[in-house]
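Problem: given the chain below (326 residues), write out its structure.
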Amino acid sequence: MLGEDSPVLTVLCGDQVPAGMDGIERSATVRYTDDEGLADALRGADALFVYDFLSGAVPGAWHAADRLHWVHMASAGVDPVMFPGMRDSDVVLTNSRGVFDTPIAEYVLGVVLAFAKDFARSVRLQDETRWLHRETERIDGRHAMVMGTGPIGRAIARMLRAAGMRVSGIGRTARTEDPDFGTVHAQADLIGRLPEADYVVAVAPLTEQTRGAFDERAFAAMKPGARFINVGRGELTATDDLIAALRAGEIAGAALDVFDTEPLPEGSPLWGMENVLVSPHMSGDAVGWRSILVERFAENFERWRAGRPLHNVVDKNLGYVPSSAA
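Solution.
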């Protein structure tokens, strides 16, 4: 039986209640809710677990958070809750950094190979029962530029380097002799560095500095043969500018797992472009990922109950977890 001092935990999960919460339910009063019921469920709650990390309901329900101490996101990105009320509050924010690193890195390597080896066209030709011999590209020695030097970006860099590619990074500050990227260029130098890359990978967190970074100027700066890969946030890209660049042949292709509007509207030209690979925000969702998210939350929940420092505390001014706080 729960004691009077048991914490109240609100779980924003929609109609998909997460499995594996039994242990937490034995030590806390747990309120499962959807977007519509969030405000009521936040009243008197001590902590909030945003299991439905695509929900945008938290800002609108924030007025009801009268006793909240901690919010945990079941994602690496925290932009859905980075509104002024959260930033200005004393509420601690944590994320699920570390869960998605390797799956997303595997996805990026997969789409790089898909472009180089022309897999999409092979599938189309097979559907047409056409035998058409072609030559394909090598990725060995090609240059991949990764914007975003956190854990996911580092996992991507290591995997692409293992496949023989040259890798550099775009981060908040410039540095050399980085163990994973070698050279990291400053975000302010992005446009000047883009002409060097054969593959450009966007995986940076969404901040005011990165929003819309890939726009008309950026695509015009890329090589005509370059491919653009976005596994970060859809809002990193100016979608209309990307479509225009693809149509004009300013870049050779794009692999997109995230979009500024999700699901991608049926009328979007991106669906019908032969040099575009579209996936529905799934690059990090390997088998078992939902269970891992609950396990990571449960570990932090026990630390929180015991008054110990939490893992993956987000710097609310930066909008992500600094390496020193991971």
